Amino acid sequence: MKKGLAEQWRTELKDLLRGASGGFLFGVPLLYTMEVWWIGSFVGPVRMLLALVLTFAIIFFLNQTAGFRRDSAVHTTDALIDSVEAIAIGIVCAGFILILLQEITLQTPLHEALGKLIYEGMPFSLGVALANQFLRGDEGRFDQQSDSSQSKQLSATLSDISATLIGATIIAFNIAPTDEIPMLAAAVSGLSLLSMMIASLLISYCIVFASGFTHYQQRQQQRGIFQRPLSETIASYLVSLIAATVMLLFFQKLEFSDPWQVWLNYSILLGLPATVGGAAGRLAI
Amino acid sequence: MSHSSQEKPSRSIAEWTTFGIASTILGAIAGLVIYAWTTEQDRPPVLTLERREQIREAQGQFYVPFVVKNTGGETVESVQVVAELRVNGQVEESGDQQIDFLSDGETEEGAFVFRRNPRRGELTVRVASYRLP
């Protein structure tokens, strides 16, 4: 079965996106933990290498069972190759968010940037290797119910909203009471906020639609109010932003007397992990 | 564990390409860590404090900006910077602040705020202490 070149690339891209989505699901909460940034900045190179080797060992182990590819690896060499890729995907994704959060800038010394990348990349890489395991694609199930009566549409929309809300709240609940959001907000600029919004939308889209996780074909077929990929992504981002704001209010990180810029900054910053949680929530239903 | 455990053909070009890119990334990271390792000397931390900018006055307060840099080889924790303003030999105002982390080559900026004009007295801003992590 020789596949066409375009087809090969499509499969490959989907595999990579699935891996990256798994990484985000698993790694984003730890990205908002300043202790991990700090350990990255003072840990020595020997420990960094050890951390890489340890991650590699764990991921190699995981890749023999779970992995992120549709045809999951069974041979040892496949698992080895996939492990290298999983770590690379993890490090690239973690690096992308660290740059967005301005934890790695041009001023960051090399040694510190490396430490942050490696330590934050670890949970991401684990997520990549677990991608198939914790959200496995279920393509056989999608043609069960495709009647689109008005009430069905409405209930599908409602269940999507509530799933997003629950997922977003769980993640936001974990991050909102900590000091990271005010800390990150102190360094943030207008451009980086805009990029955070775009990144949130992209990641959410990738997790739910592009990566081929559970139910995604069913999702693309449904024609509810909330079901078109683009409108669903935007609507769930808004829901996640609301969940983030409510959690910040709940933990008194936001007060009604605060200026609106603070509300905006905090909500967008917490909105990124909340969106990832919301996307996970929608996959779980 | 796969639901599609059919006979898998050899890796496609696309898969080899991503593997190539992935191993380059990983190799680069590992290489940089080793580079950091070999260039790492057992140098103790050296903390320098500079006052590059001018003292700024706004609404009756005087802002004294400072830049602290670690030019040594080790990362330090809890760097304490103190400022004292002496007028006629007596300490009139003082302030201190802590910087959480300062790794090698890193700089942090901050400012002290005084109510009196620091130009009319003798101002000292210095690093008082640090801790090793």
- Helix coverage percent of residues of chain A? over 70%
Mean pLDDT of chain B: 83
CATH class of the largest domain in chain B: Mainly Beta
Tell me the number of strands of chain A.
Answer: 0
Give the low-pLDDT segments of chain A. Answer: 138-147
Indicate how many domains the architecture of chain A comprises.
2
Q: Which two chains have the most extensive interface, and how many residues on each? A: A-B, 46 and 39 residues
In terms of quaternary structure, the protein is heterodimer
> What's the helix-strand series of chain B?
HEEEEEEE
Query: What sequence of helices (H) and strands (E) makes up the elements of chain A?
Result: HHHHHHHHHHH
Q: Helicity of chain B, in percent?
A: 10-25%
Task: Give the total of domains of chain B.
Answer: 2
Q: Write down the overall mean pLDDT of chain A.
A: 82
What does this protein look like?
The complex is a heterodimer of chains A (285) and B (133). Chain A is globular. Chain A is built from 11 helices and no strands. In chain A, 75% of the residues lie in helices and 0% in strands. By secondary structure, chain A is mostly helical. Chain A has 2 domains: 8-134, no CATH class; 141-284, no CATH class. Chain B has 133 residues and is of the alpha+beta class. Chain B has 2 domains: 9-40; 47-131, Immunoglobulin-like (Sandwich). Chain B contains 1 helix and 7 strands. In chain B, strands 1, 2, 3 and 6 form a 4-stranded antiparallel β-sheet that branches. The model of chain B is unreliable at 1-7 (pLDDT under 50). The chains are: A mainly alpha (285), B alpha+beta (133). The interface between A and B is large, with 46 and 39 residues.
